[in-house]
Specification:
Layout (H helix, E strand, L loop, with lengths): L1 E3 L16 H8 L3 H28 L4 H18 L7 E2 L5 H32 L11 H18 L1 H5 L10 H10 L6 H20 L5 H16 L6 H5 L16 H33 L5 H17 L6 E2 L1 H9 L6 H17 L8 H15 L2 H7 L4 H16 L2 H28 L18 H6 L5 E7 L8 H8 L7 E8 L5 H16 L3 E5 L3 H9 L9 E4 L2 H14 L20
Parallel strand pairs: 4-5, 5-6, 6-7
Antiparallel strand pairs: 1-4, 2-3
Length: 591
């Protein structure tokens, strides 16, 4: 539990939790400079979304126009109704496996019904205020199934990347690998050249021109090369017959109690993934902008958007982390940018859709291989592999079950394993505390034995804030530290974080502490940690935290921390100059 020493600000309640950020923006006053910034960002994101939406739809086992419909309908509604200022919605790689399996078993009509059901589930979850429950999904589970999905997407694109003479790619991973290996002698040199050239172009542009739309440039270049050289490779036109220049009319799927019951597990999986990824994306956006999203409002918007996407024949949608980050970097400030991005894609469909007929499928396979690599989170996997053995085991098991068994099973097993691991740790902590003397729990950690905690806290130097963490800083409680940080307005010169009553910390807790540190550095705030116990100190040191890290220092007790805080405030010229300035980057930033 995180407890702020000063009085907490009142929390929003009732209908205020579901007011879209678009309404908030309009009430604040929407001016011409903001509109210009949103237009530029919206066009930039649309350029990224166009090839990606078609590629994701094809990888999901359906036609490319379904991905564009999803961007137009769901992307517009997620921005218009959502609880984040800069969230960009649409189809994502996380859904590829689920959508492909649902279509294989229940047909596309079954996917439509499952997506609509998932939409209602998300609306209900938001109205029940379950949006904050994301903190109960630990990092090893999220990274494990995300990396597993990346492997599945990558292997599903090998056929089109190499131009293999393979009618269908088996859904089972073992059978898929065997089929791909058996058909390696049918590689098409022309297809491989197009795919390889597209991938190299993306990598070069991302490295040397990161602000350019690498996906679109690479796909356009590949399409031009195929047309000019007359290469015999599959294109969107040759395989799918092109993209219609209109939106379909909304239609209801066939509904019966039997179908609802059969599709319930698939609908739950879609709702779960949409909720998790959208809120993770919103958290990432908060870290980039310094704003705070409304999680329950975001879930309601995701639900409405998914139901609407299903009615128009689209795919499941959620907040897209990469496109949201692109929106922020391009200068997007309000939900209008996301709405513009959807309208630009609509204009493409209505005006120039036939151009997409010439896009080679090999180039889209290269795009998805790049997406899969980014999804694999190699850097974060390496980071988590320095965590305690139990969390490494959760990561590996979740990954293996995602790849070789089933995504839903992987998440269920991963969460249960994490819960058991946590209970085991808590049992160990209780045993230790039972061996302590009663009066040891009330021992004061102030340097001056004659001063009381109340006296010293009342005499806090200007520009210094004190927070105290109580209880284990594990995946279910760590997010409260970020909430405590966000409530500090204006930002202080020094944050003192008391951890004398934190008996243990896990990988997610360490990750949130690292995020807290980066946010403080961005605001020009130093962090002092006091009274840290042996287990948390060992875990933090193992995962890269140390006394020499810029912006972070450790103190034995609160008195020592207050002395150091006064020195920092004095060295920075007092409180009057406390405007945040750029500070050195964290020595070890989390991947």
């Amino acid at each position: 539990m995180t407890e702020r020493v000063t009085a907490p600000r009142p929390r929003a309640s009732g209908w205020h939790l579901f007011v879209p950020k678009l309404v908030t923006v309009l009430r604040e006053g929407y001016r011409l400079p903001t509109l210009r910034a949103d237009l530029v960002a919206g066009i930039t994101v649309a350029i990224v979304a166009l090839p990606l939406a078609m590629a994701l739809a094809i990888a999901s086992g359906t036609t490319p126009d379904r991905g564009l419909i999803t961007v137009i309908v769901a992307g517009f509604l997620i921005s218009a109704l959502g609880g984040s200022r800069v969230q960009i919605g649409g189809p994502t790689g996380a859904f590829v496996v689920v959508v492909f399996n649902v279509i294989q078993v229940h047909g596309f009509d079954g996917l439509i019904l499952a997506t609509a059901m998932a939409g209602f589930m998300l609306v209900a979850a938001g109205l029940l205020r379950l949006g904050t429950w994301i903190k109960y999904i630990p990092d090893p589970v999220v990274i494990g199934f995300t990396a597993g999905i990346a492997i599945i997407i990558a292997t599903s694109q090998i056929k089109d990347f190499l131009g293999l003479a393979l009618d269908t790619v088996p859904a089972d991973m073992a059978d898929r690998l065997a089929a791909l290996w058996a058909s390696l002698d049918t590689v098409s040199p022309a297809t491989l050249a197009v795919a390889g050239g597209t991938l190299v172009t993306i990598l070069v542009l991302r490295r040397w021109r990161p602000l350019w739309p690498a996906f679109l440039i690479a796909v356009v270049a590949a399409s031009a090369a195929v047309a000019l050289l007359g290469l015999e490779v599959d294109t969107i036109g040759s395989r799918f017959g092109g993209i219609p220049q209109s939106l379909p009319l909304p239609a209801l799927p066939d509904v019966s109690l039997d179908r609802l019951g059969t599709l319930l597990p698939s609908a739950f999986t879609i709702a779960f993934l949409a909720g998790i990824e959208s809120l993770l994306s919103a958290v990432v956006a908060d870290g980039m902008t310094g704003r705070r999203h409304r999680s329950n409002c975001e879930l309601v918007a995701q639900g409405v958007a998914n139901t609407a996407s299903a009615l128009f024949g689209g795919l499941p949608a959620t907040g897209a982390i990469a496109r949201t980050a692109t929106n922020v970097r391009a200068g997007g400030r309000t939900p209008v940018a996301g709405m513009v991005h959807a309208l630009i894609v609509l204009a493409f469909v209505l005006l120039v859709a036939p151009v997409a007929d010439h896009i080679p499928l090999a180039s889209l396979a290269a795009v998805l291989l790049f997406v899969a690599w980014n999804m694999s989170e190699i850097g974060r996997i390496r980071w988590l592999m320095r965590a305690p053995l139990g969390e490494r085991l959760v990561l590996v098991v979740t990954f293996a079950l995602t790849v070789f068994v089933d995504l839903t099973v992987a998440i269920e097993v991963g969460v249960v394993m994490a819960a058991i691991l946590f209970m085991h740790r808590m049992a160990g902590v209780v045993q230790v505390e039972q061996g302590m003397r009663l009066f040891a729990e009330d021992r004061d950690d102030f340097a001056d034995p004659g001063a009381t905690g109340i006296d010293q806290l009342a005499a806090l130097p200007p520009g210094v804030e004190v927070f105290e963490l109580r209880g284990p800083l594990f995946f279910g409680a760590a997010a409260q530290l970020i909430e405590a940080h966000d409530r500090a307005v204006p930002p202080p010169r020094v944050f003192i974080v008391r951890m004398r009553e934190v008996p243990l910390i896990d990988a997610t807790g360490a990750g949130v502490l690292e995020t807290f540190l980066r946010r403080c550095q961005a605001r020009g705030t130093a962090v002092l940690v006091t009274g840290i116990a042996d287990q948390p100190r060992q875990i933090l040191q193992r995962m890269g935290f140390g006394d020499g890290q810029p912006g972070l220092r450790f103190a034995a007790n609160l008195g020592e921390a207050l002395t150091e805080a006064e020195r920092i405030v004095a060295a920075r010229g007092g409180v009057d100059s406390a405007t945040p300035t750029a500070s050195p980057p964290v020595a070890r930033s989390r991947p």
